[in-house]
Specification:
By secondary structure, the chain is mostly helical. The protein has two domains: 92 residues, Rna Polymerase Sigma Factor, Chain: A (Orthogonal Bundle); 73 residues, Winged helix-like DNA-binding domain superfamily/Winged helix DNA-binding domain (Arc Repressor Mutant, subunit A), CATH 1.10.10.10. Helices cover 71% and strands 0% of the residues. α1 packs across α2, α1 packs across α3 and α2 crosses α3. It is globular, with a radius of gyration of 17 Å.
Length: 167
């Protein structure tokens, strides 16, 4: 298995997906590293077919992110009980140099209004370049549910960006 090639091929898209779950870029990077370790260890136990690698990596990022969120929530609960509230739950969002243009900011605002299920499917489909079947395997839903969430997300974004064309 060519891990350097996998990281090069999927790394940026997986980091973008991890950022959806993370409060900052450093946390997103940690989530991505954890996901790659999980996939690597799983591959050592039982080799993953190359055709399944992309979906397995996205699934690993999702699970690592959810684990991180649960851990952060528990930590926040402990700190709140101790009188210190350091963790604030909310929509993870931060800007990088690439997100500074006005169109990207508008898209980010519009996507933040989508339900998380639709946002996740849209991110995996467009930026992750996964098929509906791969997304379904990643988020453990049916392909029909995934396709429906994608259509709903696209329709919602059309209403924002092209209101005269929206059905």
């Amino acid at each position: 298995m060519d891990w350097a090639g996998i990281v090069e091929q999927l790394g940026d898209r997986l980091l973008l997906y991890a950022r959806r779950w993370a409060p900052d870029e450093a946390t997103a990077t940690d989530i991505l590293q954890e996901a790659f370790l999980r996939v690597w260890h799983a591959n050592e136990k039982q080799p993953i077919p190359e055709a399944d690698m992309s979906a397995r990596c996205y699934a690993a990022v999702r699970r690592a992110a959810l684990d991180h969120l649960r851990s952060a929530r528990r930590r926040g609960d402990r700190e709140a009980k101790g009188g210190e509230w350091l963790y604030e739950a909310g929509s993870p969002s931060f800007q990088t140099d690439l997100e500074r243009d006005e169109e990207r900011a508008a898209l980010e605002r519009a996507m933040s209004t989508l339900p998380i299920e639709q946002h996740e499917v849209l991110t995996l489909k467009i930026w992750g370049e996964l098929t509906f079947a791969e997304i379904a395997a990643t988020i453990e839903e049916s392909p029909n549910t995934v396709a429906s969430r994608y259509r709903l997300a696209i329709a919602a974004l059309r209403k924002v960006f092209a209101p005269e064309e929206a059905p």
